């Protein structure tokens, strides 16, 4: 039976009705239909105070729609939501009412301001304390910030600039900002891919923060594609697939294997047979004694048919290596050869003309054209092919339709804006765009960041098809398990220097971790 509707009158203390061990959030029969797509289909979900619920699913499974409805950004078509003691018809959810009941969301982009300090960022959540008149009471800002830093065990001071902090600490500040006006143990917080861009050692900092939130009695919904952290942190997990609840897993059933099975509707393996590149295979890319930006004395070679992995922490120079090869970072010294020809790219178009293409880490700003359609994004690299006096629209439409199918890009049609697609489908569309050029060298920086396990397998299958045809690829990835599965050989970079190469049977996440986190270069080099 439907309970009383919540009014946004501000009279309720945030989170006052959420109690440890009791349901903080109950969702019943939540449904949402977009034109041509059933985004959510009678979804039920529960999370109690003091629990961590893992919310998993492939891109396009309905996770984002669910969060938008709970935040009042989207309106549901049917269903009911209970938050604490308040019961609300899902089509009547208002953001202000949910906020007053203690719901908080920390999104993947964090929405922190790097040129402001910790205290200033924290006060943006609850408002700056003022003296008489409009002037800010900076002493109170510092005192409040210090109290929050202590409460949430953040390694920073009120005056530390955000840009000087690790991303994991910035995420802690975003969480503290969100929960500062919620009673301890009184809130429901949704963390949307909080560790997607974090290396392992920084992710551990955030894992500890999540455990503390649950220990205080908060209900935590953890949305993550990192299935190992869901298993490690969650008390139970709900898996969405095609807008429906595919599984509720807990206890012995909460394993990575069962999560993958539920997400995909069947078991699949991303690991591919490691290719033994023939010693007489031609060297496609040769780099000798390259220095650029933070890079010093880089020497690598990649043969035709080979995928080379690059492992490194944030700031190690791993991204700069790709940028230097792509003409996006000036080379100070050294030589780069493509198929034996010495090159010195100073612009990206020069690299593309020589068959070197790059898919950057920042998909939204450097990969897709968000205002263009899916088909326009996939065609933009080859438009000249269709000019033969007159523009060959029919041929282009035929080709791009086949391309969407070949790369398994899920979209209601090619004419929808690419920004409406899930991250995995956006990435597959970007990959399809560049592979249409038949590149000699493909550079990929975190190609599966924020992408579900099914889309990851599709992405790497297409990369392998490219290298099987005689091209070469270099992959930068923070996920060492993934990197070890999909590459033929890997190098480890620290402080702009390649300190190790891992090949053959030694190529594993464990061996990469040992070298990556070694503090002594001699140890990292295996000497």
From TrEMBL:
Region Disordered: start-end pairs: 1-20
Nucleus among keywords: no
Pfam families: ABC_tran (PF00005)
UniProt keyword Cell division, yes or no: no
InterPro entries in alphabetical order: AAA+_ATPase, ABC_carbohydrate_import_ATPase, ABC_transporter-like_ATP-bd, ABC_transporter-like_CS, P-loop_NTPase
Domain (ABC transporter): residue spans on this chain: 25-267, 277-520
Start-end of Polar residues biased regions: 1-16
Gene Ontology molecular function: ATP binding; ATP hydrolysis activity
Keyword terms, alphabetized: ATP-binding, Cell membrane, Membrane, Nucleotide-binding, Repeat, Sugar transport, Translocase, Transport
PANTHER family attached to this UniProt entry: CARBOHYDRATE TRANSPORT ATP-BINDING PROTEIN MG119-RELATED, D-ALLOSE IMPORT ATP-BINDING PROTEIN ALSA-RELATED
Protein name stated in the entry: ATP-binding cassette domain-containing protein
């Amino acid at each position: 039976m439907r309970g009383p509707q919540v009014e946004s009158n501000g009279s309720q203390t945030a989170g006052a009705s959420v109690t440890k061990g009791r349901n903080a959030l109950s969702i019943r029969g939540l449904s949402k239909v977009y034109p041509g797509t059933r985004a959510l289909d009678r979804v039920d979900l529960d999370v109690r105070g003091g629990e961590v619920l893992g919310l998993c699913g492939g891109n396009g499974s309905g996770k984002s729609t669910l969060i938008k409805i709970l935040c009042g950004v989207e309106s549901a078509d049917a269903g009911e939501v209970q938050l604490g003691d308040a019961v609300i018809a899902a089509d009547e959810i208002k953001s202000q009412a949910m906020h007053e009941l203690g719901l908080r969301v920390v999104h993947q982009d964090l929405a922190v301001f790097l040129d402001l300090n910790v205290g200033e960022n924290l006060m943006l959540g609850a408002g700056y304390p003022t003296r008489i008149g409009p002037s800010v009471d900076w002493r109170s800002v510092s005192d409040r910030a210090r109290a929050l830093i202590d409460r949430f065990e953040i390694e920073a001071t009120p005056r530390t600039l955000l840009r000087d902090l690790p991303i994991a600490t910035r995420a802690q500040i975003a969480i503290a900002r969100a929960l500062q006006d919620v009673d301890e143990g009184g809130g429901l917080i949704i963390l949307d891919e909080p560790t997607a861009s974090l290396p392992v050692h920084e992710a551990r900092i955030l894992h500890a923060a999540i455990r503390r939130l649950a220990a205080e009695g908060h209900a935590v919904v953890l949305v993550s594609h990192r299935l190992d952290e869901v298993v490690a942190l969650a008390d139970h997990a709900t898996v969405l697939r095609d807008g429906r609840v595919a599984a509720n897993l807990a206890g012995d059933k909460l394993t990575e294997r069962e999560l993958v099975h539920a997400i995909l509707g069947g078991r699949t393996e991303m690991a591919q047979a490691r290719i033994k590149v023939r010693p007489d295979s031609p060297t496609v890319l040769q780099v000798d004694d390259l220095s650029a930006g933070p890079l010093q004395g880089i020497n690598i070679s990649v043969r035709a048919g080979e995928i080379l992995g690059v492992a490194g922490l944030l700031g190690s120079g791993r991204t700069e290596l790709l940028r230097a090869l792509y003409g996006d970072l000036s080379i100070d010294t050294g030589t780069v050869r493509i198929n034996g020809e010495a090159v010195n790219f100073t612009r990206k178009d020069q690299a593309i003309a020589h068959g070197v293409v790059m898919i950057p880490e920042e998909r939204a700003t450097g990969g897709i054209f968000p205002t263009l359609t899916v088909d326009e994004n996939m065609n933009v690299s080859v438009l000249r092919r269709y000019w033969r006096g007159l523009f060959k629209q029919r041929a282009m439409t035929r080709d791009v339709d086949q391309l969407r199918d070949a790369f398994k890009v899920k979209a209601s049609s090619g004419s929808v804006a690419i920004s409406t697609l899930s991250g995995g489908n956006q990435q597959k569309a970007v990959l399809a765009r560049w592979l249409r050029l038949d590149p000699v060298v493909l550079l990929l920086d975190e190609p599966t960041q924020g992408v579900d396990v099914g889309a990851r397998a599709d992405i790497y299958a297409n990369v392998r098809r490219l290298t099987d045809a005689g091209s070469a690829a270099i992959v930068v990835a923070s996920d060492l398990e993934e990197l070890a599965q999909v590459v033929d050989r890997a190098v480890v970079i620290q402080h702009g220097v390649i300190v190790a190469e891992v090949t053959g049977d030694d190529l594993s996440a464990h061996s990469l971790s040992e070298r990556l986190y070694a503090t002594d270069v001699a140890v990292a080099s295996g000497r």
